[in-house]
Specification:
The chain is mainly α. It has a single domain, classed as Multidrug-efflux Transporter Regulator, Chain: A, Domain 2 (Orthogonal Bundle), CATH 1.10.1660. It is built from five helices and no strands. It has helices at about 5-15, 20-25, 30-40, 55-70, 75-100. The protein is globular, with a radius of gyration of 15 Å.
């Protein structure tokens, strides 16, 4: 699959990825996605797995979690914690940018 930079931006903005599309895009198993949801690292829209929809941001989170597990041997709980910490860092950076423009 040829993914240029423009395509990646479009995928990131999508809000309706199915579980199958998310798994395919991240080379992840559905069981791993279910584990991330159980750990609170992902919150899909929709009441049940057949109706779940995921955002581009969640796609990025799953990609990071897959790399952490594959490359560093991090378990699902550890990957969920790392994602939470990365989100907090992003939020703090945004706040600092806001303070810097005053």
């Amino acid at each position: 699959m040829n993914m240029n930079h423009d395509h990646a931006l479009i995928v990131e903005e999508q809000t309706g990825l199915t579980l199958a599309e998310l798994c395919s895009a991240c080379a992840a198993q559905a069981d791993f996605i279910h584990e991330l949801i159980a750990e609170g690292a992902l919150e899909p829209a929709g009441p049940e797995p057949t109706q779940w929809r995921f955002t581009g941001v969640q796609l990025r989170h799953v990609s990071v979690a897959v790399r952490l597990q594959r490359d560093l041997g991090v378990n699902t709980a550890g990957a969920a914690l790392a994602l939470q910490l990365l989100d907090e860092i992003d939020q703090l950076r945004e706040r600092l940018r806001g303070i810097g423009t005053r």
